[in-house]
Structure formats: structure tokens, C-alpha cells
Amino acid sequence: MAKKTAAAAPKSGSSKNFEERLERLEKLGEQIRKTDIPLDEALKAFEEGIRLARALESDLEKIENRIEILMNSADAPITDSPDLDLFNSDE
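Given the sequence above, the corresponding C-alpha cells read:
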């Protein structure tokens, strides 16, 4: 029987999109809420969660700014596709 490897995402050297990072943040929150987690492990999860939350907040600000520019620009071409590279950033 073959092992399922698709569920485990590579941890190093891969870029994660916004949704994957948000999902990781949610899992970290669940992990920290467990009462049987060692303090060191909880602290590491908390630190990673803070870094993810700050990166996600920064990405959302970039999105909001881009939307505001598009909405306020009278001559903005409608056919241009938005720049969504920030969803694939490493952080």
C-alpha cells in the first residue's frame, strides 16, 4: 500500500500562497490552545504565528492599496489583470 505524501507540504524552500499561510496560522492557533502542549513547543508555535500574522496583514494592506488605486483611478484599464504575486511570497 502506498503512503499518502500529498498531505504533507514541503517546509523549506517552497513559497506558500496566502491561503496556505492563513491555514497554517489557524493550525498554530489550534495547537497553542491544547492544554497538553509543552511550553517550549507552544512558544515556538506562537512565534511562528506572530510572523505569519504580520506577513498576512502586510499582504492584505497591499491588496487594499491596490484596490483603492484601481477604484479611484478614472483611467485605469479594466482589461489589465491584477498583480497577485504577493500571494506567492516567501515568509
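The chain is about 55% helix and 0% strand. Try to locate this feature in the C-alpha cell string yourself.
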